[in-house]
């Protein structure tokens, strides 16, 4: 635990950027001006690949620390924490060197597994919180083994931790995102390893939440202010974002909008409610789990449309919420498991010559809001209550219209997290036992907007099913 007069250095390993920032140790609030960012450009291929250059990524992250050092922000640091994208994988040789780029969550390559009728995927899902989907190592490792003979496998956060400390280890949180963890025990699942075709010694060792390492001598010389500072194991970005937004108990659903979007609830792993097939479940730390639903089209959808439509404003302010005649089904990047809609399946219905670029943007953001609402209502049923909602993430911070749209779609009040860096904030909170509050505005749904969205949902649902069917024909 840090002293309250010390700061926390947070490393946030995102898909579109790597960031290093300094936070207050008592409430995980960012220190003004103490942020460095390295832009990341994933490489996408026609074969479904979506990769990151590991060397470029890590060197860019180290450069962020150099920038903080040069500006005097690495003095008085009492802890180093990490938040990272889930689901990445790198194949390693017998010397620990990378044989592949970082394969990200967006990569669609893998192999199908013919496990036969004896395999019980319902039991597997209940135990691991995941499915046999390309997102997870259970299908990615056999695919990587089919073309090469890697000696070991690790994720991006595991390799960053190894680079900094010399120890290749992972957290129960990051391991849960691989699809190979037994959620109840916090150890690798024997059946998942058997399906993947590896033994546990070929994967990073899982360390407890209280584990800490220290920087290697090389980096202690590079950043003298960090000598002896404990480095905490990484937290998966979804879990970190929930906690950082203020959604860290079973009565609150956190909706976060970044490149993608998700709605999640943090709750104790002990006596957790039975997991519905439609939801995933990962771990936050040794005692808590996070259950939710994720969506592939969110901030990426917003950024793409504002560029394609050449909008002067990234807000459809002239369009009333729920009033767009056009309906967008936001399957541009496909759907997350267990649904199997592939990328390239986005659809607009009801277009007319009267529609403006702002109408098309509004329809897309409304469609994304309705998708998130599907997940929220599923969580309401699971926890047997209407959950409170807190909104957070860069997409939320950037768009007032979208905040109002989500509030009307959920038909309940929402609280907006005032801090956009929710992943870094949450990683600090998990490592140091903090309970950050949202601290932002409270939104009340506007009755007319709620009514229009309710009417729109009646048209949206059958068109969504039509889009699902069309995706099977088109792809």
TrEMBL record:
<dbReference type="InterPro" id="IPR000577">
    <property type="entry name" value="Carb_kinase_FGGY"/>
</dbReference>
<dbReference type="InterPro" id="IPR018484">
    <property type="entry name" value="FGGY_N"/>
</dbReference>
<comment type="similarity">
    <text>Belongs to the FGGY kinase family.</text>
</comment>
<keyword id="KW-0418">Kinase</keyword>
<dbReference type="Pfam" id="PF00370">
    <property type="entry name" value="FGGY_N"/>
</dbReference>
<feature type="domain" description="Carbohydrate kinase FGGY C-terminal">
    <location>
        <begin position="253"/>
        <end position="431"/>
    </location>
</feature>
<dbReference type="InterPro" id="IPR018485">
    <property type="entry name" value="FGGY_C"/>
</dbReference>
<dbReference type="GO" id="GO:0005975">
    <property type="term" value="P:carbohydrate metabolic process"/>
</dbReference>
<dbReference type="InterPro" id="IPR050406">
    <property type="entry name" value="FGGY_Carb_Kinase"/>
</dbReference>
<dbReference type="InterPro" id="IPR043129">
    <property type="entry name" value="ATPase_NBD"/>
</dbReference>
<dbReference type="GO" id="GO:0016301">
    <property type="term" value="F:kinase activity"/>
</dbReference>
<dbReference type="Pfam" id="PF02782">
    <property type="entry name" value="FGGY_C"/>
</dbReference>
<protein>
    <submittedName>
        <fullName>Carbohydrate kinase</fullName>
    </submittedName>
</protein>
<keyword id="KW-0808">Transferase</keyword>
<feature type="domain" description="Carbohydrate kinase FGGY N-terminal">
    <location>
        <begin position="8"/>
        <end position="244"/>
    </location>
</feature>
